[in-house]
């Protein structure tokens, strides 16, 4: 049965309400669904940390969430968690997000054939399992990224097995269409992990929120490991931070993998969001609230970063 170009949804969302969390790019881990269901080995400490910035959610009955995933298999896994957790106010949708509405190619890696897996040596199977743990979550929208090509080629060479690279066609939605179709009016936490599409999604969100500023997310985490820069052919990840600062955001911290921004007007003292901001602490001087922090490899506040190196 073909799923190409079709939009699949699951769950229920109370239209007109602000979401506690919108997560785009689920893969097979790091989701708020895993966190609340509490499956051993699948709960991400990072997601739990981000959810601590939310106000008023405690369990599957109270959390309001939107989950977006273009890969059918990951969508089905998330749907299973949705049923298992009996979430009352969470909705899933199988689409890709970008700056416009339409259709777009989706590249993904499939598992090797069962007979090929059975014929592998122990060493080959170890290489296969290790690389597939990444490749399963490395689908890309539009053109194939050099990142995906490299890891796919490395897996084929090391494991000496044919690993299919598939091209599907999926629906592409802008942020405005996502908000309209799913019925949410803004969110408290926005989590992006889309293998290079994060900047395009953020710009789509910013355009929508320029017209509807009350729908701006309060906390944003996006992937900033260079994939969006490669996709855009420039320094898009730094540029979008400046664009979001013009929209009222403050850069809180940046690591080799992720960037975090907070909407200034919502960082009210004593709020869950403000308490979350205070979890950032300098590994050198111990100071909190000295933004932005650079986490490479240890968390360093803006003051210590500007001093001559003494460590």
UniProtKB/TrEMBL annotation:
Q: Which InterPro entries match?
A: SAM-dependent_MTases_sf
- Its recorded name reads SF3B4 protein
């Amino acid at each position: 049965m073909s799923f190409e170009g079709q939009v699949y949804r699951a769950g229920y969302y109370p239209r007109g309400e602000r979401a506690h969390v919108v997560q785009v790019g689920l893969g097979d881990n790091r989701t708020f669904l895993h966190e609340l269901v509490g499956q051993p080995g699948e709960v991400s400490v990072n997601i739990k940390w981000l959810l601590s910035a939310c106000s008023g959610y405690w369990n599957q009955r109270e959390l309001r969430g939107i989950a977006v995933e273009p890969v059918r298999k990951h969508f089905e896994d998330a749907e299973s968690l949705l049923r298992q957790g009996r979430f009352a106010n969470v909705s899933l949708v199988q689409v890709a997000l970008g700056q416009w509405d339409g259709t777009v190619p989706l590249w993904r890696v499939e598992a090797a054939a069962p007979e090929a897996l059975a014929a592998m040596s122990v060493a080959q199977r170890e290489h296969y399992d290790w690389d597939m743990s990444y490749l399963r979550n490395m689908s890309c929208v539009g053109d194939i990224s050099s990142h995906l090509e490299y890891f796919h080629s490395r897996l084929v060479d090391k494991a000496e097995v044919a690993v299919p690279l598939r091209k599907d066609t999926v629906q592409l939605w802008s942020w405005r269409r996502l908000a309209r179709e799913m019925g949410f009016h803004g969110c408290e936490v926005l989590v992006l992990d889309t293998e290079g599409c994060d900047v395009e999604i953020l710009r789509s969100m910013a355009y929508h929120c320029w017209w509807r500023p009350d729908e701006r997310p309060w906390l944003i985490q996006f992937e900033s490991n260079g994939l969006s820069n490669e996709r855009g052919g420039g320094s898009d990840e730094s540029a979008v931070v400046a664009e979001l600062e013009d929209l009222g955001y403050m850069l809180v911290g940046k690591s080799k993998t992720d960037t975090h921004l907070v909407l200034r007007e919502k960082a009210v003292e004593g709020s869950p969001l403000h308490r979350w901001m205070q979890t950032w602490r300098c590994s050198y001087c111990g100071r909190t609230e000295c933004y932005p922090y650079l986490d490479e490899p240890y968390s360093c506040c803006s003051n210590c970063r500007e001093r001559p190196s003494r460590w």
